Amino acid sequence: GESVGLHLPTLSVQEGDNSIINCAYSNSASDYFIWYKQESGKGPQFIIDIRSNMDKRQGQRVTVLLNKTVKHLSLQIAATQPGDSAVYFCAETDFGNEKLTFGTGTRLTIIP
Amino acid sequence: EAQVTQNPRYLITVTGKKLTVTCSQNMNHEYMSWYRQDPGLGLRQIYYSMNVEVTDKGDVPEGYKVSRKEKRNFPLILESPSPNQTSLYFCASSLSWGVADTQYFGPGTRLTVL
Description:
A: six-stranded mixed beta sheet; five-stranded antiparallel beta sheet; B: about 0% helix
């Protein structure tokens, strides 16, 4: 069946370095993708989104890249800070579908 | 403050004892949803509601009920809880669906069914 997955379950990065979190999706009909951040004891929090008519979108210290050819999504976090330590999820949907499909998450740990 | 609230935050119960987890949002959102989060499985949608009196099944609706009598509230009901419903539950809301509206999540309810 369709699934959204992540290549790496954990990632450790030195404070100040850049981090890249990857996500593979298999539903070729998906046309909208979201990255969420979930801190310990809290609910997921929207970070950034991208539509399938775009390859790249930038926010504050974050960039999402979409490669539709290989069905791959990535989240880049620049100059990581201790507050970036969290679990990051990708999610996908298409606008004809009234629900999101979530990946299992990658735990990002920032090393001081 | 714009937020989604859930109660209780933690609950330990026994098999078969009916329970309700409340969810309320103060943002006048039309779309509300319940998810469960289990290790290695990610968030899975239980039920969702497009508006008052409009609800539909998500991916894992078995053993759950919902109602949407008011726009702000979307309670999750477990009529006869079983141990396999032990999980972390999240309620979420967004302005609407069909456009890229941000979903806002509640803080979560950790349920243990003995």
